[in-house]
Design goal:
It contains 23 helices and 21 strands. The protein is an alpha+beta fold. The longest helix is centred in the N-terminal third of the chain and has 25 residues, at about 140-165.
């Protein structure tokens, strides 16, 4: 297929800009004005401009878009313009921003300017900075020609970047990038505005009550020790840091402390309010999220914005466009929002979940055959471990005991020690009323897990003693897992010849006696054996789920992907067929691990995303 490169230049001003608005809000706004669009095909560039109607006519009649792959740097923007304003949907969308995040995840920025500098291409240019508040009608001929040159330079850079990275991008990843873009450019979810408004009203009232209570006890809020105790009461471990002045460990409660500020998005709204009171926040993340969904609903169907390879290490999706679709908690206000995300009339939401995929995958990566046999037989691994721990049969009816078994099976596979495990139980058990466990019980549980699943612990040691040293010395093609599915390569490891986990500039810090690497703006990030296994397992699980998702997408367009879920919105008459197809896809793995990982899926349906979950 021939490849076309495009780039739009559009009007913006101080208030009306992508930096202050969601992409869909900006494009659908009455103030939107496409100044020009440059289109590059077979080494030749044409730049179109004119009124909205003129551009519509020119774009529609220029060529048959359905025959081409169309590429831009940030296709969420250019593609949304093409699809929503001009009704153009090509055979495939691709995005050099998404592809470079996958191929060069360690870079600080994947902007067109930064990527061009990295590859040694010509400068991007700066003409756009002179066009703030300038409509096409207000431009001089010289201004317009300078802007046109800037625009054509952008598509030239986009083509050069594409040619540089496309050879490292498997066809499956290209299909998934196209799918991800279409979630945004061809939305189907509709918002139930009355339900959202009701949830928002309740959240504002709840937040104001909590804020009032918090501010009444201001001495507790502003005292580090008392504030830390309040966090512990809410099952949150107070974040800490090493003071650069004293060299001692202190509480990290400043607005500049990332881990602390992330508590504003904590699933527990009481934690949000408490932290909000400390930093002077006037709204909670739950309130802001509800307000944003209401605004999106007013514009029409809800575009799902996900960043392909958003998680730099594992390659998982991340949120974007001021909405994190990956973080809609199952309780609190956001749980209600799930119910407000509905299918349009005549359609049904179908959700397929690749069950316990990380647990299944880590056992296969480690070669823990006894656990794999139990999984093939349909054994509930949470109940099985809890039964061994308690010395009696534990069933799903024993909710608290099974909860401990589940927390152990999911939490201990990545090397957590007893204190950390006890903390997991305390935090995760709060919602279901589970009592914290004594440290002695935590030690007993950790020792039991490591004794039963000795192949998992052996994989930790292998990654610590062999894999990290080999990556640091650039020794490629060493088997990472027992099956040889993943090998060391490209400053990390992955499926042979494919993008994978990267530990850029990995080296051994003799002073700290640990391995460190650089990632984005973080210099000297610690890495160790069990963490490598976590990265390996999450990356492998992502690849399996994405392969399953792409297979589902062949018949039923996937409109949302959340961790291990694929979400489709299908006509009511096709629900049964979609369910059957999803179940088939979720019970199958890629050829490279076929028959080795006993996967199983669960599929539910409903009028809304929440009802189907």
């Amino acid at each position: 297929m021939d490849v076309i490169f495009i780039d739009f230049e559009t009007y913006y001003d101080q208030e009306y800009s992508l930096s202050k608005m969601q992409t869909d809000a900006y494009v659908l706004d009455d103030r939107f004005e496409a100044i020009m669009v440059s289109i590059r095909l077979n080494g030749k560039t044409v730049t179109l401009h004119g009124t909205e109607e003129s551009l519509q006519y020119q774009l529609t009649n220029l060529l048959d878009w359905s025959k081409y792959v169309v590429v831009a740097h940030n296709m969420m923007f250019d593609g949304f313009i093409m699809a929503q304003r001009y009704g153009i949907n090509p055979r495939m969308w691709l995005c050099t921003l998404a592809l470079t995040r996958m191929v060069k995840p360690f870079l600080r920025s994947h902007s067109l300017s930064n990527i061009s500098k990295y590859f040694g291409f010509q400068e991007k240019g700066h003409a756009v900075h002179n066009m703030k508040g300038v409509h096409r009608a207000d431009m001089s001929d010289a201004d317009f020609e300078a802007y046109k040159e800037y625009c054509t330079n952008d598509v030239d850079l986009c083509e050069k970047i594409y040619n540089e990275v496309i050879g490292f991008c498997p066809l499956l990843s290209q299909v998934l990038v196209d799918m991800t873009i279409r979630m945004f450019t061809e939305p189907l979810f509709v918002g139930n505005k009355p339900m959202m408004a009701d949830l928002l009203e309740k959240e504002i009232a709840r937040k104001e009550g909590l804020m009032t209570l918090a501010m009444v006890s201001r001495d507790e809020i502003m005292s580090n020790a008392k504030f830390a105790e309040r966090l512990r009461d809410l099952a949150v471990t107070p974040p800490t840091k090493v003071s650069p002045r004293t060299g001692k460990t202190t509480f990290a409660f400043a607005k500049t402390d990332k881990e602390f500020m992330e508590l504003l998005e904590h699933p527990d709204s009481e934690v949000q309010a408490l932290v909000g009171a400390r930093v002077g926040a006037k709204t909670t993340i739950a309130q802001t999220r509800a307000e944003r969904f209401i605004e999106m609903t007013d514009r029409g169907p809800l575009p799902v914005y996900l960043q392909w390879w958003g998680a730099k290490t594992t390659g998982r999706y991340s949120g974007g466009n001021k909405v994190n679709w990956q973080n809609l908690p199952a309780r609190g206000l956001s749980a209600g929002l799930r119910n407000a995300l509905e299918a349009p009339s005549g359609y049904t939401v179908v959700v397929g979940d690749s069950s316990n995929i990380e647990l299944r995958t880590v056992m296969a990566l480690a070669g823990q055959e006894d656990a794999l046999e139990k999984l093939r037989a349909g054994v509930d691994m949470y109940c099985h471990f809890a039964s061994t721990l308690y010395g009696r049969e534990i069933t799903k009816a024993d909710k608290l005991e099974r909860f401990l078994g589940k927390t152990a099976m999911l939490g201990l596979q990545y090397g957590a020690g007893a204190p950390r495990f006890a903390e997991m139980v305390r935090i995760q058990g709060k919602a279901m009323g589970a009592e914290p466990i004594e440290l002695e019980k935590a030690y007993e549980t950790v020792e039991l897990y490591r004794g039963i699943y000795s192949r998992v612990t052996a994989l930790w040691r292998h990654c610590e003693r062999s894999i990290l040293p080999d990556i640091a010395t650039r020794c490629d093609h060493l088997r990472v897992d027992v099956n040889g599915w993943y090998v060391t390569q490209y400053e990390g490891f992955g499926r042979p010849g494919e993008p994978g986990v990267v530990y850029h500039n990995l080296r051994f810090d003799s002073e700290k006696d640990e391995y460190i690497y650089d990632q984005g703006r973080v210099i000297g990030k610690k890495i160790y054996g069990p963490k490598v296994v976590e990265n390996l397992c999450q990356h492998a699980s992502m690849q399996i789920v994405m392969w399953q998702t792409a297979r589902i997408h062949q018949r039923y367009p996937v409109k949302l992907s959340v961790h291990d879920e694929a979400v489709c919105i299908v006509p009511d008459s096709e629900v049964d067929d979609c369910v059957a197809w999803m179940e088939d896809c979720l019970s199958t793995t890629p050829e490279w691990c076929k028959g080795k990982i006993p996967v199983v899926g669960e599929v539910e349906v409903g009028r809304s995303y929440g009802a189907a979950k």
